[in-house]
What does this fold into?
Amino acid sequence: MTVDNARTFQVGDRVRVRPRLAIPIKPHQVAACLSPFLYPGEIIQCDVSADSESAAFVVRLEPHQFERVWDLEQNFYADELHRHDCDCSECGLS
It folds into this structure.
């Protein structure tokens, strides 16, 4: 993703992302896992520098129906964001 593309994302934009999950593997121990599916959220903070590799965003995810499956606010890089209404094959919306 180019710097210009990263800068098109702004606070308040609706996006889809793959949340990071904490999967219990033993009592008092969890393993980090990246969701295989995209979920909706809203950008609440942007940090876009001159370098697209370091463009970072804080996204507030919509709550999951099964309560606390993930942290509601998570950090993502620009290349992890998908527009909420995108039509790319990775989103499964094409």
